[in-house]
Amino acid sequence: MTKITPKNFRTFGWVIGPGDRAARSKSVFRVVLKEKNSRGWRIGFLLLRKEPLDTFEKHPDSFESFEPVSGKTLIFVSRGKRLSNVRCFELDKPVILDKGVWHAVFTLTPESGIKITENAEVQTRYWKLPGPLNPPR
Fold this sequence. Notes:
The chain is mainly beta and about 140 residues long. The chain has a single domain (about 25-130), classed as Sandwich (Jelly Rolls), CATH 2.60.120. About 5% of the residues lie in helices and about 50% in strands. It has one helix at about 5-10, and strands at about 30-35, 40-50, 55-60, 65-70, 75-80, 85-90, 95, 100-105, 110-120, 125-135. A hairpin with an 8-residue loop joins strand 5 (about 75-80) and strand 6. The relative contact order is 0.27.
């Protein structure tokens, strides 16, 4: 049995990950695979770093999966655009969000890795909070 590395697996596909880690200091989302000439889906990888949690987003026309890969992550979700509706969960297993659910993620470790699958073309709406949320510990 051989441990997978980007180099030894290249013949068969590729390893999902953040790409060049050293060049970045903030969270970064990168599309890893998108079918060309398709209205299907894409796979992305979010390298999440500690940043203030002050914005939620939603995708009215796309389901979205969040699949934890590394680190300890919280996912915040809400059906409505009211802070009193926001629920917080530890992202300790893969989940799929319904279309139009407001969401945000926050890492409790220096960084977290999350695999994301969604429609190939995604419309995003943003909800800027009046101030940063203080995640539970």
